[in-house]
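Lab manual, section 2.4: Encoding a predicted structure.

Procedure: take the sequence of the chain (131 residues), apply the prediction step described in section 2.3, and record the output as C-alpha coordinates. A sample record is shown.
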Amino acid sequence: MSTIVISNIKAKGETASRAVSGVASAWGKFDGSLATPAFNESVNFSSIVDNGTGNYNMSFTNNISYPYSFQGSCGDHNFGTTTIRILVVAADNQQPTSSGFRCFSLYVGNANAVTNFDLDYGFITIHGDLA
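Recorded output:
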Protein backbone atom coordinates (compact mmCIF):
# COMPACT_ATOMS: atom_id res chain seq x y z
CA MET A 1 0.00 0.00 0.00
CA SER A 2 1.32 3.47 -0.87
CA THR A 3 1.26 6.42 1.51
CA ILE A 4 0.56 9.97 0.41
CA VAL A 5 2.03 12.61 2.73
CA ILE A 6 0.19 15.96 2.77
CA SER A 7 -0.33 18.93 5.07
CA ASN A 8 -3.76 20.14 3.92
CA ILE A 9 -6.75 18.62 2.15
CA LYS A 10 -9.66 20.02 0.19
CA ALA A 11 -12.66 17.96 -0.91
CA LYS A 12 -13.98 18.29 -4.45
CA GLY A 13 -16.41 21.22 -4.59
CA GLU A 14 -15.09 22.91 -1.43
CA THR A 15 -13.64 26.41 -1.63
CA ALA A 16 -11.27 26.14 1.33
CA SER A 17 -8.68 23.61 2.42
CA ARG A 18 -8.11 22.41 5.97
CA ALA A 19 -5.27 20.87 7.92
CA VAL A 20 -5.12 17.08 7.85
CA SER A 21 -4.92 17.19 11.65
CA GLY A 22 -8.53 18.44 11.70
CA VAL A 23 -9.85 15.20 10.21
CA ALA A 24 -11.33 12.69 12.68
CA SER A 25 -8.93 9.92 13.75
CA ALA A 26 -11.86 7.66 14.62
CA TRP A 27 -15.64 7.90 14.57
CA GLY A 28 -18.49 5.50 15.08
CA LYS A 29 -22.20 4.90 15.59
CA PHE A 30 -23.01 2.04 17.95
CA ASP A 31 -25.88 0.24 19.65
CA GLY A 32 -25.30 -0.40 23.35
CA SER A 33 -28.67 -2.06 23.98
CA LEU A 34 -27.72 -5.33 22.26
CA ALA A 35 -26.62 -8.37 24.29
CA THR A 36 -23.22 -7.77 22.65
CA PRO A 37 -22.88 -4.03 21.89
CA ALA A 38 -21.75 -3.38 18.32
CA PHE A 39 -20.82 -0.62 15.90
CA ASN A 40 -23.34 -0.02 13.11
CA GLU A 41 -20.74 2.07 11.28
CA SER A 42 -17.23 3.09 12.26
CA VAL A 43 -13.75 4.14 11.19
CA ASN A 44 -10.74 3.04 13.26
CA PHE A 45 -12.75 1.27 15.99
CA SER A 46 -12.10 -2.45 16.37
CA SER A 47 -14.40 -3.48 19.22
CA ILE A 48 -16.71 -2.64 22.11
CA VAL A 49 -16.64 -4.54 25.41
CA ASP A 50 -19.74 -4.44 27.63
CA ASN A 51 -18.70 -3.90 31.28
CA GLY A 52 -22.26 -3.65 32.59
CA THR A 53 -25.20 -1.29 32.20
CA GLY A 54 -24.10 1.79 30.26
CA ASN A 55 -20.40 0.97 30.71
CA TYR A 56 -18.31 0.25 27.60
CA ASN A 57 -14.64 -0.16 26.64
CA MET A 58 -13.88 1.06 23.12
CA SER A 59 -10.76 -0.13 21.27
CA PHE A 60 -9.09 1.47 18.27
CA THR A 61 -7.93 -0.46 15.22
CA ASN A 62 -4.90 1.87 14.95
CA ASN A 63 -3.58 3.55 18.11
CA ILE A 64 -4.14 7.28 18.62
CA SER A 65 -1.62 9.31 20.63
CA TYR A 66 -3.02 10.40 23.98
CA PRO A 67 -4.23 13.01 24.76
CA TYR A 68 -6.95 13.15 22.14
CA SER A 69 -10.29 14.91 21.97
CA PHE A 70 -13.50 12.93 22.56
CA GLN A 71 -16.97 14.04 21.49
CA GLY A 72 -19.96 11.85 22.13
CA SER A 73 -23.73 11.94 22.13
CA CYS A 74 -26.36 9.32 22.76
CA GLY A 75 -30.05 8.60 22.90
CA ASP A 76 -32.67 6.03 23.75
CA HIS A 77 -36.17 5.50 22.41
CA ASN A 78 -37.57 4.55 25.83
CA PHE A 79 -36.97 7.80 27.71
CA GLY A 80 -39.30 10.77 27.70
CA THR A 81 -38.34 14.36 27.09
CA THR A 82 -37.77 15.03 30.80
CA THR A 83 -34.43 13.21 30.85
CA ILE A 84 -31.00 14.41 29.78
CA ARG A 85 -28.86 11.72 28.18
CA ILE A 86 -25.08 12.06 28.03
CA LEU A 87 -22.07 10.01 26.95
CA VAL A 88 -18.90 10.58 29.00
CA VAL A 89 -15.41 9.14 28.76
CA ALA A 90 -13.34 7.68 31.64
CA ALA A 91 -15.62 8.88 34.42
CA ASP A 92 -14.30 6.22 36.82
CA ASN A 93 -10.73 7.60 36.91
CA GLN A 94 -9.60 5.10 34.30
CA GLN A 95 -7.36 7.17 32.03
CA PRO A 96 -7.89 6.82 28.26
CA THR A 97 -4.94 5.19 26.47
CA SER A 98 -3.59 5.22 22.93
CA SER A 99 -5.41 1.91 22.27
CA GLY A 100 -8.85 2.90 23.59
CA PHE A 101 -10.98 4.27 26.40
CA ARG A 102 -13.92 3.53 28.69
CA CYS A 103 -17.16 5.47 28.33
CA PHE A 104 -20.48 5.61 30.12
CA SER A 105 -24.01 6.42 28.97
CA LEU A 106 -25.93 8.23 31.69
CA TYR A 107 -29.25 9.94 32.10
CA VAL A 108 -30.36 12.58 34.54
CA GLY A 109 -33.95 12.03 35.60
CA ASN A 110 -36.29 13.27 38.28
CA ALA A 111 -34.64 14.79 41.37
CA ASN A 112 -31.41 15.02 39.32
CA ALA A 113 -30.67 11.33 39.91
CA VAL A 114 -27.89 10.10 37.57
CA THR A 115 -28.28 6.53 36.30
CA ASN A 116 -26.41 4.37 33.79
CA PHE A 117 -28.46 3.02 30.88
CA ASP A 118 -27.84 0.83 27.83
CA LEU A 119 -28.23 3.31 25.00
CA ASP A 120 -30.03 2.59 21.72
CA TYR A 121 -27.58 4.69 19.76
CA GLY A 122 -24.29 6.41 20.50
CA PHE A 123 -22.12 8.60 18.31
CA ILE A 124 -18.40 9.07 18.99
CA THR A 125 -15.75 11.19 17.27
CA ILE A 126 -12.07 11.22 18.22
CA HIS A 127 -9.61 13.88 17.07
CA GLY A 128 -5.92 13.28 17.64
CA ASP A 129 -2.73 12.07 16.00
CA LEU A 130 -2.43 8.45 14.94
CA ALA A 131 0.37 6.84 16.92
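Check your result against the sample. Residues 24-127 form one domain.
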